[in-house]
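SUBJECT: A protein chain and its fold
Encoding: whole-number codes for local backbone shapes
Chain under study, with its fold:
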Amino acid sequence: MADKLELKKHSVDEFGVNEQTPREIVEELDKYIVGQDDAKRSVAIALRNRWRSRKLADDIRDDVIPKNILMIGSTGVGKTEIARRLARLVKAPFVKVEATKFTEVGYVGRDVESIIRDLMQISVRMVRKQRTEEVKEKATENANERLLDILVPEPKRAQNSLSKLFGAVDQNAVPAEEPAAENNNAGREFVKKRLEAGKMEDQIIEMEVSDHAKPMVGMFSGSSLENMGENLQDMIGSLVPKRTRKRKVTVAAARKILEQEEAEKLIDMEEVAETAVQLAERSGIVFFDEIDKVAVKGSSAGPDVSREGVQRDILPIVEGSTVMTKYGPVKTDFILFIAAGAFHTAKPSDLIPELQGRFPIRVELKSLRKEDFEKILTEPQNALIKQYRELLKTEGLALEFEPSAIGRIAEMAYDVNEQSEDIGARRLHTLLEKLLEEVSFSAPDMVKEGKTEVRIDAAYVDEKLKEIAKNRDLSQFIL
């Protein structure tokens, strides 16, 4: 297209590649997740195999398919956290879905093919963001020119009364006086210099912006009607001319709006869609959570019928099939699937045999011990104690935990998990909330009274939590 900016040829290899070695990937995950070395190693190997497969010759590359992973472990041990951190670590489209959201075709619920459509949306967003960065300089230049046109409009050409009445352009119309044009150019240069110096960022201007129609949420839901709704919206949007409305914004906000509009003009969306399809096919990762909830124990009737149906519907996606999306057909043969479940009431063998065979790598995540809880409280970059310390610092209150207090909290978390339901590291959230309830409530008053530091020791932990942790019946409701 003539009005498109000439861009260099791109390859899908620019995306979805993680150059880190398996050891480096594990080290990165160690910053946020305590223990679970087996799961981290499996994920790291799977990512590295992606990198290795790209180095293979064409005649064998298509025969090497990803080895899907099944994570088995109780809630709160790090299954979802591994997936979440993996999403940030890998430069590839990643989607996390709960298996319980999907139902067999013919039942009310989401269609399993919507997983791939969601993956494609994420892939398109990634490629589009990359292309936007590439044309940012040109888009900013064009946006500044449009901004100048708004701040310093071009002088209007003189027209006779008949041309104004009928809207016709008079070829013999006399242009505006030369001094006015010179003044306009001088004014434009003056405003341009002020813009470049950043002296007009807070000035309010009125501009026309595109009036985007709100999505028709809820009108189309369930099964393939969901995709039909998206396609119908796109079709209507292309037929109906874009509406605009006037809006008062600052110069800084106007520049952002104009930069986005100019970038859209410079980006070739057909090329973006083609690259995004390749990216999703070769580098996509899908994380199935709560896979055990669709496992059927023995032969049963009732609602379990749809559970087995969900497994049968998931099977072609995992096995390798072609899903139609609005960006084109997407093959799922080389997408990496990671499934996870607690498997308390069901076993992995309760899944249908065909689905079991599609998850050859099985990793069992261990229950957390007292030592693990101590590390979770202090070592990760997003450790809970660090979060509470930073929250109370905003009030001007310094929160300090003595080592004895951390050990006591970890011991209580382990004991309560042993006595009641094992919810893993999530137990720490409930314990710390209860422990710091009084401090969080009274922090502003304490600062006003001149108290700027609170030290938590083992005695304080026992005072606030000992009775609750000891009383098993009460802890079931509170913790």
The chain has 20 helices and eleven strands. Residues 1-13, 214-223 have pLDDT under 50 and may be disordered. The CA atoms of residues 435 and 465 lie 7 Å apart. The longest helix spans residues 114-134.
